[in-house]
Amino acid sequence: STQSRSSAASDVYKRQDKGYEAWSKVPTTDDYHMSAPLIGLEATGPAEIEEIIFGFVTENELKQELVDIVELGDYITCFLKLTTKTGDIIDGVEVFKVDKEGRVEKIWAL
Predict the structure, then answer these.
(1) How far, in Å, CA of 75 to CA of 96, rounded?
(2) Other beta carbons less than 10 A from residue 87's beta carbon
(3) What is the C-alpha to C-alpha distance for residues 17 and 40, in angstroms, rounded to an integer?
(4) Mean pLDDT, the chain, as a whole number?
(5) What DSSP state is assigned to residue 110?
(6) Which of 22, 49, 71, 85 could form a disulfide with 43 if both were Cys (CB 3.0 to 4.6 A apart)?
(7) What is the DSSP string of 12-58?
(8) What is the pLDDT of residues 36-77, one digit of tens each?
(9) From the DSSP assignment, how many helices (H) and strands (E) are in the chain?
(10) How distant is the alpha carbon of residue 65 from its chain centre?
(11) Which residues pair with 96 in a beta bridge?
(12) Residue 16: per-residue pLDDT
């Protein structure tokens, strides 16, 4: 149903923004993968994603503001404004691919 998928999408986003502890409650596949090519980060599985991705976010004090969220089939696309600790503002896009059970299996941060 579209309604449950939609609420799942915003839930995925909101939890990610609240840090790893909240994010860890989002349903994911065991070996889900995240790629952030612009900053040269890649991680597979929960432990690496916590250490590498959330470590980067914490270290750089990145703040995220959700501008829009669009869903198409198995893809959830979040349009973001990111603010760095120096006050720079960057436009970003994150794409989440979910499997048939609604578990996140891939994330691209662009």
Answers:
(1) 6
(2) 6
(3) 20
(4) 88
(5) -
(6) 49
(7) HHHHHHT-HHHHTTS-EEEEEEEEEGGGTEEEEHHHHIIIIIIHHHH
(8) 998 899 999 999 999 999 999 999 899 989 999 999 999 999
(9) 4, 6
(10) 12
(11) 76, 107
(12) 72
Whether the per-residue pLDDT at 1 is higher than 50: the answer is no
CB 26 within 8 Å of CB 100? no
The H or E element containing residue 70 is strand 63-72
- The pLDDT score that the predictor gives to residue 6 is 58
For the chain, how many residues are written? Answer: 110
Rounded mean pLDDT of 98-106?
Answer: 92
- Which residues, at least 6 apart from 100, have a Cβ–Cβ distance to it below 8 Å? 74
Q: For position 21, what pLDDT does the model report?
A: 82
Pairing of strands 89-98, 75-83: antiparallel
Q: Rounded distance, CA 78 to CA 97, Å?
A: 12
